[in-house]
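User: I'm writing a short report section on ligand binding and want a predicted complex to refer to. Could you take this sequence and S-adenosylmethionine and write out the structure as tokens? A short remark afterwards would be nice.
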Amino acid sequence: MSFDPSTSRLAKLTTSLLETVSKLEEALHAQRFPSPSFDEDAPALFPKEAIGVRDMAIDYAAEIQDLLQGPLDIIYRHGSFNNCVSLQAISRFKIASLVPAGGKTTYANIAKETGLDERAVRRIIRHAITMRVFREPEPGIIAHTQASKALTNPIANDWVSCGTEEMWPASAKMVEALEKWPGSQEPNHTGFALANNGESIYQVLTGNPERAYRFSNNMKAYMLMQEYNVSHVITDYDWGSLGHVQLVDVGGGAGHVTMELAKHFPKISVVVQDMERMVEKEGSRIPIELAERFKYVVHDMFAPQAVQADVYYFRWVFHNWSDKYCSLIIKALIPALKPGARVILNEACMPDPGAIPYWREKYLRSFDLIMGAGFAAHERSIDEWKGLFAEADPRFTFQSVNQSEDSALAIIEFVWAAEK
Ligand SMILES: C[S@@+](CC[C@H](N)C(=O)[O-])C[C@H]1O[C@@H](n2cnc3c(N)ncnc32)[C@H](O)[C@@H]1O
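Assistant: Sure. The structure tokens for the complex follow:
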């Protein structure tokens, strides 16, 4: 049988990949952006103009790789449980910071600094190198790649640490939790609780300031990624059209997102509400130019809302609560709501299977599993968001949903109607 390129998926993908990569390079060149590399100084974010073709190139290349591997190879590669071993060691011992920027070190030096056995250091880093974290330009010499250099930022290192020290053990117990407590909506019925002597993540973080601080850095680290960058919050909603407004950032954590919003929109005043430990830490870090318009207040979002505002903004707050608790958080707003008040969520909207680039869908579905393992919660589709608010109170009217191509989170708006 002779080879017929018109019936070969591999040949079609390769042709599409070639065409797409040349469009990508043109788009990058037009933006004076370098061709992608692993170089430690390579830019981390892509220009928006190149996102669509980049998504296509990623999906074509990934499908080619999957097609060329056998079924168990695919499962082994995507299973990736080993990846957490090397990443855990790298983040726990802050190994990225032991390699000088633009310079080199040795396995022996890293062993000396960390107190680990040199052979252990070598096997850990050589595994990480297969994920493009560090490189070995000559035997025994370690230098940075773009990814290892990123981990010299303590916030990014805490993000890896939170993933490998908190979420990985929780994920390893998720199936056990699903068997033990089928359908439970309780945060202490989770893989996380099974890995933490029965305590929910909320109990653990409340009782352990160091872990709470790391978790808060983990949330900040997402801002370093294109898909979660604060620029989407600024551009994906017409904040300017609101005029002078009071905005409450409920469960705002470090307030890092609405602080950017306040910087861009001088008519927006912000109150960040969170638990005491967060507010104590962040309250003193308000830049002087925002002193009049930005403050942190302790507030339990399950208690009746105390601030009458124009906008209640929730970023990544509901996705880690089950429907039962989300409903309580929504109902707690009602005593403060005036007609026309807006509730604006910044959350993922789960797509129909196959509706978005494959690699983006994989990110979202991974997040959904993390929400299950850590919190007995889940990511929601737009219909589920609408259903959640309608069930909490029919006076919430769905208004709009917006999401830019390179954002993982949508901006979903509900408006409070006095009567219905
Ligand atoms: C997933 S984080 C999101 C933080 C921030 N909005 C962001 O996008 O980075 C959830 C936040 O909810 C806060 N939180 C949890 N329970 C709370 C409660 N009962 N009252 C107020 N805030 C709470 C946590 O401290 C944390 O800052």
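A remark for your report: The first helix runs from residue 9 to 30. The chain has 18 helices and ten strands.
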